Amino acid sequence: MTLRITRALGALTTLAALSLGLAPAFAGDGFKEVKVDEVASMLGQPGVKVFDANPPDLWEKNHLPGATFIGDKKLATLLPADKETKLVFYCAGPK
Fold it and tell me: What is the pTM of this model?
């Protein structure tokens, strides 16, 4: 699980949204790119946790309601106890 989370954080700079635990979009890594409307329909659903990896100023202006701001917190402290939870990470992408 830690390796996949680490990969997700590295991929955040190149992808707008990722989901862990869904059908993989990239061979063998367990990730799937998710469209904005798909993420919107997942917000607040049981078994899904959405994380915002934007800088604080973008979080303040544009975060999705119900998303968890990662900020400078250790990701491991924010993860749900249920290992079957789908984890969605998003950011504005590289500038």
Answer: 0.65
